[in-house]
Amino acid sequence: MKRKDPYVNLSWPIYVVFVALGCLLAKVLFDGLEINATYNWHMNIIIYDILVLVYGYVSCVLFYMLGKVIFAKLAGFDILYFNFLLIGIKKENGKIKFYNGAKEDFSCNVEIVPNPNKKQNIPLALWGGTIGITVSCAVTYILLFALDSSSTTKCFFILSSFFYLFAFIAYMIPVRMDNITDGFALVLIHKYKLGEAYLRNKRNLRAMYDSKYELEYFDYGDNNDPISMEGKCFNFYYSIRKNDMELIKDSTSKLAESYKFVIGEDSTRLASIAQAYLLSLNDQVEELKDFYWKLDTPSRKALRNTKNLDSMKIGYYIEGIVEDSKEGLQELIDATPKCAQKYKYKAQVEAEMKFIEELKEAIYTKNPGIKM
Q1: Quick one: which of 60, 257, 366, 372 has the fewest CB in 10 Å?
Q2: Residue 347 or 203, more confident
């Protein structure tokens, strides 16, 4: 699917609408249930507000993730990892491992991948999280009013349950937000027949973590829908793993040409890196310098991020050729082994490290004076 313009990110308009809707709904519920807004508080109001926010967020996210896990398994998927704040569980090289979520990304996320021995039901898997929070919210309200709770308790659960409403809107509304949400994915898959592309991306994600699986290459042509663009990102990783310079240049070029259509933090960062990376691969030093110095300071720092091997590849070239900085290059060299140990995609590390070594030697050849 070829688009002239990228999808507009509607995250903030949706957030504003949600807040307005939440305030209106709160007033209707409070009036309808005759809940007095001036309660006999049993605790400090600030602590109460904090508890409302914490309970609403934690319970909503937890039930979303549990719903995702349950329905994904029913739909023929496996769970690649489950990260809930401090608690992390992942399947790496065929083994289940527990890890400290705070050390990796301190996020709340569950990633599903196709079970090669089962047929997948994509809509059921994508609806799973929303079904989880809907059931949880319904049970909460049934218990709340069946037990004839006090006004303070009703207020607490009503306010915290707005997180459930927000999650339903955020995950299932069929428009672009900061990431490819469940609802947006369903629309893209149905409208443009991208079911196989979606599954291929999930299989490739598993291959990035688990060395037992091979990355799959697929020519997406001029397609620039978000799912195909995600596939082009995996093509880039495939080319690195194969250590095929022509394929690396081709995959990087295709990613750089349509980087504006990429959605998602990891993919967006990789697409922006691809623009600089392509110039370095083609020895277009002056063009790279021009591109680099037009970026703002945060973007320049992102290209030399010592916590990500994607960024470090272009960082080597920038420090060694563009900046001509011995200290900067040595800092990256020293940081590389530590970064590799914590790299998110464990099965990709060997290929990435091999390529970085070759890149380092190429830099020494182009700029012998940079070698310490």
Answers
A1: 372
A2: 203
- Strand 95-100 and strand 108-114: pairing? unpaired
Q: Percent of the chain at pLDDT above 70?
A: 83
Q: Which helix (H) or strand (E) holds 139?
A: helix 122-146
* Sheet containing strand 95-100, strands side by side: 95-100, 87-92, 77-84, 108-114
The DSSP string of 37-70 is: SS---SS-HHHHHHHHHHHHHHHHHHHHHHHHHH
Other CB atoms within 10 Å distance of the CB of residue 287: 14
**Spacing of C-alpha 336 from chain mean position:** 23
Distance, in Å, from the CA atom of 367 to the CA atom of 369, rounded to the nearest integer, reads: 5
Report how many helices (DSSP H) and strands (DSSP E) the chain contains, helices first. 16, 4
Do 47 and 162 meet the contact criterion of CB atoms below 8 Å apart? no
* Cα separation, 252 vs 280, whole angstroms: 11
Interatomic CA distance for residues 152 and 142, integer angstroms: 17
